[in-house]
């Protein structure tokens, strides 16, 4: 079985800071992989490398066996990635549902000149509404995202990433800003997305939910990979434990 | 029947509205500021004027002006892809100065004296007025249509946040180029009409003041609003004709207007009216 994502020897430095140091891991088809680690471990940077937002000094990223080197972000998204970023970034000049419709219409927006002759948005509106319902924010469909609470905007980003119908969904702390009940509900949604057969990489500090829903964990600390395996075993590993204790209390 | 003065005024309004709506495509719809848009009005004007002086039919001159302006616009757009926001303002301003500097130096373009004696359109002044108003109406209709298309939808995303637009698989660079090509092409059409209307063009007809004027039309109308940009363009086109003082202090007046609108009602007239309507309803 070929890996959905194969990251090999990725190194990223920002000025003097080494954000990622020779990190390799794979993501298998249909898997829900938790990518965890203390603050500043390099998790977000890894997703930025995968999506082409950050160019690594060394290493390769392969999606379904194809090397992504040199491909810009939009092209990688068309190859089957979906991204919900840690910092909330919404299109605040259109409604919440339209944010999701823009992603759902990726085929219509593939070429500007073809897009000039496409007017119908009803299919995308239907898909977007279903996704908003799935993440539990359909009541805000017609509102501007900048007026919504953080928990809503976080879920909007998940729905928008899903609307690309990605082979690999990348979620960077989707549960942050949600209360206990909302977080559990969204974690269930993420588990459901994986159960549908979609491959998911989840970055999350909420270790309770992470342990509850993920199939496997990859742990980063100061840019290095310090753990990779079955969640229960990884979290009991003294090295992983020490990384979290050293940081204080992350869960 | 309307008199010669009204005909000239309506022609001027049609050209100004077309020009302002062309910038509205780039700045209003796609979020890309330009402080040198008059360069494309000028490109269209010079190409159209040179064409008809050389004996080409007016329609050919007009279309050639639009096409050449679009091509130059696409090249400028390509050069602007790597710069953003405030730098784009400076880059496009530079393009505006480059245009004036270039045309001044070119003897074959008439140098500083420009091109005089552009022949009168065979369809007469009334015909030109009809064409100018028709082009303005068509541009307005096209703008309204564009806003409803998936191209306009992608422009919304880019105007809001281009990095995030990339994460929803939008090829931001190609869309920006499309916006530049469309906006500058239509500006070129307006330029051709300008040349046929005034029948004399010179480098200074397409300088910084004209670029600021057209930006003022878009901002005062309300960035992105087809209706109110049209209204603002018509108003700012006639004011200098009615009041000599306005004509004398254009740059100062439009600068103050721009600043005031940005400060008090960033949505321009469109935003102001929307707020008033909401206020009345409540
Ligand atoms: N654009 C940047 N420029 C400079 N340094 C950066 C940049 N982005 C990240 N870093 C640094 O790289 C390191 C890894 O950051 P990253 O955001 O990937 O961590 P993270 O694991 O996502 O942390 P968190 O859990 O707090 O989100 C940190 O030391 C951070 O300060
Ligand atoms: Mg992070």
Please, could you describe this protein's structure?
The complex is a heterodimer of chains A (251) and B (282). With 251 residues, chain A is of the alpha/beta class. Chain A has two domains: 1-79 and 169-174 and 200-251, P-loop containing nucleotide triphosphate hydrolases (Rossmann fold, 3-Layer(aba) Sandwich); 81-165, P-loop containing nucleotide triphosphate hydrolases (Rossmann fold). Chain A has ten helices and ten strands. Chain A has helices at 43-50, 73-78, 96-104, 112-115, 122-135, 150-162, 180-195, 207-213, 231-236, 238-246; strands at 5-14, 17-27, 32-36, 58-63, 66-67, 81-84, 168-172, 199-203, 216-221, 224-229. In chain A, α3 (96-104) crosses α5 and α3 packs parallel to α6. The longest helix of chain A is centred in the last third of the chain and has 16 residues, at 180-195. Chain B has 282 residues and is mainly α. Chain B has one domain (4-207, 223-230). In chain B, 78% of the residues lie in helices and 0% in strands. Chain B has helices at residues 4-29, 38-53, 58-80, 86-105, 124-148, 150-160, 162-167, 172-198, 208-221, 226-242, 244-248, 250-264, 268-281. The mean pLDDT of chain B is 90. At the A-B interface, α2, α3 and α4 of A face α6, α7 and α8 of B. Bound molecules: adenosine-5'-triphosphate and magnesium ion. The site of adenosine-5'-triphosphate has 12 residues of chain A, from β2 and α1.
Bound molecules: adenosine-5'-triphosphate, magnesium ion
| Whole-number tally of structural domains of chain B | 1
C-alpha end-to-end distance of chain A: 34 Å
Main sheet makeup of chain A: 6 strands, mixed
Strand order of the largest sheet of chain A: 6-7-8-3-9-10
SSE topology string of chain A: EEEHEEHEHHHHEHEHEEHH
State Rg of chain B.
Answer: 18 Å
* CATH first level of the largest domain in chain A: Alpha Beta
**How many individual domains of chain A?**
2
Shape of chain A: globular
Indicate the low-confidence ranges of chain B by residue numbers. Answer: none
Helix content of chain B: over 70%
Portion in beta strands of chain B:
under 5%
Largest interface, with counts of residues having CB < 8 Å to the other chain, equals:
A-B, 38 and 26 residues
- How many H/I helical runs of chain A? 10
Q: What's the assembly state of these chains?
A: heterodimer
What is the number of beta strands of chain B? 0
């Amino acid at each position: 079985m070929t890996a959905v994502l194969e990251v090999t020897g990725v190194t990223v430095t920002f000025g003097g800071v080494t954000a990622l140091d020779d990190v390799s891991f794979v993501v298998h088809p249909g898997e829900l992989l938790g990518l965890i680690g203390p603050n500043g471990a390099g998790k977000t940077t890894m997703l930025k490398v995968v999506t082409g937002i950050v160019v690594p000094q060394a290493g390769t990223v392969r999606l379904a066996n194809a090397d992504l080197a040199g491909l810009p972000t939009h092209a990688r998204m068309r190859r089957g990635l979906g991204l919900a970023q840690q910092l909330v970034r919404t299109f605040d000049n259109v409604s919440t549902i339209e944010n999701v419709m823009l992603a759902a219409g990726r085929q219509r927006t593939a070429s500007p000149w073809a897009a000039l002759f496409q007017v119908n948005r009803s299919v995308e509106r239907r898909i977007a509404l279903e996704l908003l319902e799935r993440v539990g924010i359909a009541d805000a469909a017609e509102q501007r995202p900048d007026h919504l609470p953080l928990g809503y905007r976080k879920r909007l980003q998940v729905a928008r990433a899903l609307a690309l119908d990605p082979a690999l969904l990348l979620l960077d702390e989707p549960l942050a800003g949600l209360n206990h009940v909302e977080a559990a509900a969204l974690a269930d949604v993420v588990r459901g997305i994986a159960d549908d057969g979609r491959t998911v990489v989840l970055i999350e500090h909420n270790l309770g939910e992470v342990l509850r829903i993920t199939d496997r964990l990859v742990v980063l600390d100061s840019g290095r990979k310090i753990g990779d395996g079955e969640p229960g075993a990884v979290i009991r590993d003294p090295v992983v434990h020490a990384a979290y204790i050293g940081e204080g209390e992350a869960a | 029947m309307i008199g010669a003065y009204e005909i000239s005024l309506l022609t001027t309004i049609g050209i100004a509205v077309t020009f302002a709506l062309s910038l509205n495509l780039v700045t209003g719809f796609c979020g890309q500021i330009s402080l040198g848009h008059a360069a494309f009005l000028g490109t269209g004007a010079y190409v159209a004027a040179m064409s008809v002086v050389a004996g080409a039919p007016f329609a050919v001159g007009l279309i050639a002006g639009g096409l050449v302006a679009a091509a130059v616009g696409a090249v400028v757009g390509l050069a602007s892809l790597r710069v953003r926001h405030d730098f784009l303002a400076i880059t496009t301003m530079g393009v505006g100065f480059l245009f004036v500097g270039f045309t001044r130096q070119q003897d074959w373009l008439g140098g500083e004296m420009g091109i005089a004696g552009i022949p009168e359109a065979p369809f007469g002044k009334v015909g030109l007025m009809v064409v100018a108003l028709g082009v303005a109406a068509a541009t307005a209709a096209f703008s309204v249509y564009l806003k409803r298309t998936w191209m306009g939808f992608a422009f919304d995303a880019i105007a809001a946040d281009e990095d995030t637009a990339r994460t929803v698989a939008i090829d931001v660079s190609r869309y920006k180029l499309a916006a530049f090509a469309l906006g500058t092409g239509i500006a070129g059409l307006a330029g051709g009409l300008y040349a046929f209307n005034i029948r004399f063009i010179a480098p200074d007809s397409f300088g910084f003041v004209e670029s600021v004027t057209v930006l003022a039309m878009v901002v005062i109308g309300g960035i992105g609003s087809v209706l109110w940009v049209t209204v603002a363009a018509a108003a700012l086109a006639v004011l200098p004709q009615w009041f000599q003082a306005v004509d004398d202090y254009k740059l100062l007046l439009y600068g103050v207007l721009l600043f005031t609108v940005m400060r008090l009602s960033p949505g321009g007239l469109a935003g102001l009216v929307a707020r008033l309507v909401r206020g009345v309803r409540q």
